[in-house]
TrEMBL record:
Cofactor(s) in the UniProt record: FAD
Primary subcellular site in the record, as a coarse category: cytoplasm
Location(s) in or outside the cell: Cytoplasm
Protein's name according to its UniProt entry: UDP-N-acetylenolpyruvoylglucosamine reductase
Gene3D superfamilies, per the entry: 3.30.465.10, UDP-N-acetylenolpyruvoylglucosamine reductase, C-terminal domain, Uridine Diphospho-n-acetylenolpyruvylglucosamine Reductase, domain 2
Pathway(s) of this molecule: Cell wall biogenesis; peptidoglycan biosynthesis
Family, as annotated: Belongs to the MurB family.
Catalytic activity field: UDP-N-acetyl-alpha-D-muramate + NADP(+) = UDP-N-acetyl-3-O-(1-carboxyvinyl)-alpha-D-glucosamine + NADPH + H(+)
Gene name in the database record: murB
Taxonomic lineage: Bacteria, Pseudomonadati, Pseudomonadota, Betaproteobacteria, Burkholderiales
EC identifiers of the protein: 1.3.1.98
Top-level lineage group: Bacteria
Keywords: Cell cycle, Cell division, Cell shape, Cell wall biogenesis/degradation, Cytoplasm, FAD, Flavoprotein, NADP, Oxidoreductase, Peptidoglycan synthesis
Keyword DNA damage (UniProt): no
């Protein structure tokens, strides 16, 4: 069997994850296209290793070294590939920066992704998490994707329904986990764009700027300003963005909590349940700005856990567990981490 080109062994992953955890991988392969994945599948030794698909490394936490093969997605390219009656179709390779893609669409006069500006990570990772922010989710502009199936060696072409999107969830966290590797994603961007100002904080930011008829680029600028005020730059302070999902609870539980905590933040969902603000719950437990060893809670946003310098994955996990225990003890609500623990 011929060796797989560009394969690296004993690689530090510190620069490959935004939390800045210094874990090591047994092997790492830069993936530029489907041929690299086929080469791995054809190699019995490599194909037998545990696999980790890595994009921008913004939604994972290394709890230790990874004794397997890291597939680091490097494919690039963004193109307009067609249209439907009401949308323009844009395809981007998995290795493209998510924020770079959003900026590309705006530069080409296309709206629909602006509420998702400045989210770290790669295009290929975005459907896995069904990323979302400021009243918008990836599924709102998703058209389809191409993925490589390690079980069969075939290409999968999945539309929105097939991806089974949920709140920070998709089929790639379930039946296709450890099996499918996303190669490219196609988005449907509306020809008749309308601003999405359902999220109160975004609407307030737009109003403060005096914009009565904001364009997509304006909305993007407002989102970027909000995020930069609230969230640390991973290049300066290691973090994985929002560390916990906002918990969703039944209306009766929300009402009982609100009676005891009148300032509690909650948002009605389409099915009658309520989404609670995890950051508010954590803040009420006194965690904002606190540290445990080199792991800490960001002083401007309690939802963000940070690596203050040299923190291990175990330290980050211990901090997350301590926060979760306090929130559950006080509010009876269990927090679920957003990042994937590896």
């Amino acid at each position: 069997m011929a060796p797989v080109p560009h394969l690296q062994t004993g690689v530090s992953l510190r620069s490959f994850n935004t939390m800045g955890i210094d874990a090591h991988a047994h092997a790492l392969l830069p993936v530029h296209g489907v041929d690299d994945l086929r080469a791995v599948r054809a190699d019995p030794t490599l194909n037998a290793l545990p696999r980790l698909v890595l994009g921008g490394g913004s939604n994972l936490l290394f709890t230790g070294d990874f004794d397997g093969l890291v597939l680091q997605m490097r494919g690039t390219g963004i193109d307009i590939v067609g249209e439907t009656g009401d949308a323009v179709l844009v395809r981007a390779a998995a290795g493209e920066s998510w924020h770079g893609l959003v900026m590309w669409t705006l530069a080409h006069g296309l709206g629909g992704m602006e509420n998702l500006s400045l989210i770290p990570g790669s295009v290929g990772a975005s459907p896995i998490q069904n990323i979302g922010a400021y009243g918008s989710e990836l599924k709102d502009c998703f058209h389809g994707l191409t993925a490589f199936d390690f079980d069969t060696g075939a290409l999968l072409h999945l539309d929105r329904e097939a991806c089974e999107f949920g709140y920070r969830d998709s089929i790639f966290k379930h039946r296709l986990r450890d099996r499918a590797v996303i190669l490219d994603v196609t988005f449907a961007l509306p020809k008749r764009w309308q601003p999405n100002l359902r999220y109160a904080e975004l609407a307030q930011e737009v109003a403060l700027r005096g914009w009565t008829a904001p364009g997509a680029a304006d909305i993007s600028a407002a989102v970027i300003a909000i995020r930069q005020r609230k969230l640390p730059d991973p290049a300066l302070l290691g973090n994985a963005g929002s560390f916990f999902k906002n918990p969703v609870v039944p209306a009766a539980q929300r009402d009982a909590l609100l009676a005891r905590h009148p300032g509690m933040v909650s948002h009605l969902q389409g099915d009658g349940s309520f989404k609670l603000a995890a950051g508010w719950l954590i803040d009420q437990c006194g965690w904002k700005g606190r540290t445990m060893g080199a792991a800490g809670v960001y002083e401007k946003q309690a939802l963000v856990l940070v690596n203050r310098g040299g923190a291990s994955g175990a330290e980050m996990v211990a901090l997350a567990e301590a926060i979760g225990q306090d929130v559950e003890s006080r509010f009876g609500v269990r927090l679920e981490p957003e990042p994937v623990f590896v």
